[in-house]
Structures are given as structure tokens and as C-alpha cells.
Write a structure and sequence with these properties.
321 residues; alpha/beta; 35% helix; Rossmann fold; two-stranded parallel sheet; elongated
């Protein structure tokens, strides 16, 4: 049996902002946290989830509901995914408990021990495995300390090493709406992806790709006369118009979403011929105008640059370019 898991931490809350301990107590998502939830929901919208589980804490539930808007599956709430319990220290400012000796054992404060928490995690994960079908992809929405501790509980990671590595890289141990990815196979859990933020997830698993076509304008009068033609302009020749028409035919089936065009008329005239097959968005911009040749504009190549060195070096600053 094999299962895929996406574990997501809830969005940023009021207690996250205030630096307060937040285990079994709760605080609402901030506007920023809601935006984070919407962002992670968008990032995961094409993941084919078969099942979704979340902590019963409202901050996790609200985050999970955003993600599940893209998925026609029931959302199952379980106390087994609740955060580590800090007992009476829940709600305290973190600096107030820095000197506490109970980092691994909060039972004297009415909270959990590491051993008890590990038992809860294993029991929860085993129950989810038993409820699932072979090949399922499962969403888990839970909490930050929960995520970090299961690195040790399920995958045997040394948490001291992980903490030091995150410090060295100036990374969060588990950011709000961060995620980790793992799978289950034949009785064991295997880590596929350490905690990452949403943008890192997109870059790694869904990198943005853009196809660009760079096209030069059709032949102009200055091209025929072999004159320097940067910011100055000259009209397309009949041959240049025919070149643009041939290019338009070649490109007519390319689904261009946007056409960026130099403001020079020779480029605009060429683009308008191309755009007859693409009734979309045309943006004219000086940012892609030709090099400014300064005082050499309009001169023949032989007059302006007999050796061709300027052209190769693209250096025209000394002549006002």
C-alpha cells in the first residue's frame, strides 16, 4: 500500500503575531493569515487529493477550508492533529517560558510529554492509513511544532541538527502555511520534502515557464541604405511588409497572450501585421527600443563604424548614445 501526504501548517494568527505560546489554545487567523491560506490553496489546487484531515483548532480548520474549496472531498476534523499541548503555559509569551525546564515534558503544567505526543502522532497516522485506499493523496492541515516533531517521530531526523541547519540558512523551522511532503509505503513513512514555504513549493514543483518569441521588424529604408538606425526611424519597404506578412502566417497558430512592441514605428507596423491573427493584448514600450547610437544615427555603417568595433562592443556613450 502506498499513500502520498501533504502536510500544511495553518496561516498566521494573532498569537503568532504577539509571540504567544499556542498549543491547544487558539487565536484567529489574521488578514495576512487568510491571504496565506488563499495562497497555499491556489498552489495546491491541482493536487488530486482524495482525503483531507485537519486539526479541530479553528486556525487549522479555517486554513483547511480554503484549500478544500478547490477539491470536492469531505474535510475530516480530528483531535489527533492538534498542536502539542503546553498546558497552563498556553497563551504565555514565549520569552516567559524560555527558562522553563519543561521543553520535552510539559506534563507538570498540564500539557504533554514528548513520549505521549509521539504516541498520539503514531496512532493518528495509523488511523488515517487504515481509512485510506492504496494510491490516495491525502491533505493534512495542522500546526508548526507538530510538523517539526514528526520529522523526528516518523522519519528519525535529529531535531538539534535540523534546528541548527535552519538557523544557518535563516529559515523558519516550519513557516505559516509551509508544507512538508512525505509518503507511506508498506508500513513505513518516508520524507520527500522538508518544510518549505509556498513560493518554494511553486518553484520546485510547479516552476513558471514562459515561451518567448523575439522578432525583429521588417526591412526598412535605412536597412537598404545601410544606415545606423537606433532611436531614429525609417519606414518599412515593400519587401519589409512582405517579410512581416510571411512571419504572420508562420506565427498565426502560436497562442500569444501578450505582444510587447517597441514604440518605433517600424516595429509597430511589423507588430500590427503579426497581430491580425492575435486579437489580444499589445503593449507598446520604450524599454525594448533599439540601442541609441547618438550622433551616429542616420550615418552609413562605413562612416560611423568602419572597423565594426563599436557595433560589437555596443559602446556609443562618447557620441551621445
Amino acid at each position: 500500500m502506498e499513500l502520498k501526504f501533504y502536510f500544511v501548517r495553518h496561516g498566521k494568527t494573532l498569537f503568532n503575531l504577539k509571540g504567544r505560546m499556542q498549543g491547544w489554545c487558539d487565536s484567529p487567523l489574521l488578514d495576512e493569515g487568510i491571504q496565506q491560506a488563499e495562497n497555499v490553496a491556489s498552489a495546491l489546487r491541482n493536487v488530486p487529493f482524495n482525503r483531507a484531515y485537519c486539526s479541530t483548532s479553528e486556525r487549522a480548520w479555517d486554513t483547511a477550508k480554503e484549500i478544500c474549496k478547490y477539491h470536492d472531498i469531505p474535510l475530516i476534523l480530528t483531535k489527533g492533529l492538534k498542536e502539542f499541548s503546553f498546558g497552563a503555559l498556553d497563551g504565555a509569551r514565549k520569552e516567559e517560558v524560555l527558562d522553563s525546564p519543561f521543553f520535552d515534558d510539559w506534563s507538570s503544567e498540564g500539557g504533554e510529554t514528548n513520549t505521549g505526543f509521539a504516541q498520539r502522532v503514531r496512532a493518528t497516522m495509523q488511523a488515517i492509513v487504515e481509512e485510506s485506499s492504496d494510491g490516495d493523496t491525502i491533505l493534512l492541515v495542522s500546526h508548526g511544532a507538530y510538523a517539526v516533531r514528526i520529522l523526528e517521530i516518523l522519519f528519525g531526523m535529529n531535531l538539534d541538527d535540523y534546528v541548527e541547519r535552519c538557523k544557518a540558512q535563516d529559515r523558519w523551522l516550519m513557516p505559516n502555511t509551509g508544507m512538508l511532503i512525505f509518503h507511506y509505503k508498506d508500513g513505513k513513512f518516508f520524507l520527500d520534502q522538508e518544510p518549505i514555504n509556498v513560493n518554494e513549493y511553486r518553484q520546485i514543483y510547479h516552476p513558471k515557464t514562459i515561451d518567448m518569441y523575439l522578432m525583429r521588424h521588417g526591412e526598412t529604408r535605412f536597412n537598404v541604405q545601410e544606415r545606423m538606425q537606433g532611436r531614429c526611424d525609417s519606414p518599412l519597404t515593400e519587401n519589409g511588409i512582405q517579410e512581416a506578412q510571411k512571419a504572420a502566417e508562420k506565427l498565426k497558430d502560436i497562442p500569444f497572450s501578450t505582444i510587447y512592441v517597441s514604440t518605433a514605428e517600424r516595429a509597430r507596423d511589423t507588430a500590427e501585421i503579426i497581430a491580425q491573427y492575435h486579437p489580444g493584448n499589445i503593449i507598446y514600450t520604450k524599454k525594448i527600443c533599439e540601442v541609441n547610437y547618438g550622433d551616429l544615427e542616420g550615418m552609413t555603417f562605413k562612416e560611423a563604424d568602419p572597423s565594426g568595433k563599436r557595433f560589437m562592443d555596443t559602446h556609443y556613450g562618447d557620441v551621445g548614445g
